[in-house]
Write a structure and sequence with these properties.
Length: 245
């Protein structure tokens, strides 16, 4: 039984290591895209830069927070592997550090993740707000779930910092995940509905089919980008829910 548990622990470590490695590769892509976007922005004539500065700032903010989160996770894994002598002991060391009083790396990792989610969700809500600018009240529900997700996430970090009960933290984490998924789903649905409405209006004008296909492609792209996060979020929250019962 011990050998089976050890092999399972080693397989999980391999998967975790692959995740950290992919995160570092992703940071490289983030950095390239951020600086390429800055280069394209600086090459653009000044009169065409209006309204684009915020996106450059957001791009570098996401890159910086993502890099910090990946670096912290890599450091945590290195420390666990350095101190452990077996696969099972690795997870014992990691769990002990996470349960430790005000463990800096754990708190920093959790905090950066919450900030990263806030930036991403806020950009989605802002995009929805710009599309529905004639009826801005429509963006209120996803804005509330976005703020609720950040508030519950930060509360989780605060309770960990003040040594509050872990089960309460887990329930708050589950709520934060569901709120993030709700934000993602609502923003995607609202944007897709707006595009479908515009596509229907254009089709009544009897224009070329090419324009209708462009709208259909945009809807497919939006749904495909939102679907993985929504599905993974629901599955992860469901697993946490079953584990907390």
């Amino acid at each position: 039984m011990t050998d089976v548990a050890e092999h399972l622990a080693l397989d999980l470590i391999k998967a975790e290591f692959a995740n950290v490695a992919m995160s570092l590769v992703g940071i490289g892509v983030h950095i390239f895209m951020a600086f390429y976007g800055l280069y394209a922005f600086l090459e653009t004539p000044k009169h065409e830069r209006k309204g684009r500065t915020r996106y450059i700032v957001a791009s570098f903010a996401i890159t910086a927070v993502s890099a910090l989160y990946a670096a912290v996770d890599a450091t945590r894994m290195f420390r666990g592997l350095f101190e452990a002598r077996s696969g099972i002991e690795y997870y014992v060391v990691v769990r002990q550090r996470e349960a430790a009083t005000r463990e800096p790396l754990f708190l920093l990792s959790t905090s950066t993740l919450r900030v990263l989610l806030l930036i991403g969700d806020s950009l989605m809500v802002y995009r929805c707000l710009m599309i529905w600018r004639e009826k801005m009240w429509i963006a209120i529900p996803p804005a509330l779930t976005c703020l609720g997700s950040f508030a519950t996430g930060i509360t989780t970090v605060a309770r960990k910092f003040t040594l509050s009960a872990i089960p309460i933290n887990q329930k708050l984490e589950i709520a934060a995940i569901y709120l993030t998924v709700a934000t993602n789903v609502m923003v995607t649905a609202l944007i897709a509905f707006y595009i479908l409405r515009e596509r229907y209006a254009i089709s009544k004008l009897q224009v070329e089919p090419l324009y209708s296909k462009l709208y259909t492609g945009a809807i497919a792209l939006i749904i495909e980008s939102a679907l993985p996060l929504s599905v993974v979020g629901v599955v992860f929250a469901s697993l946490l829910t079953s584990d907390s019962q």
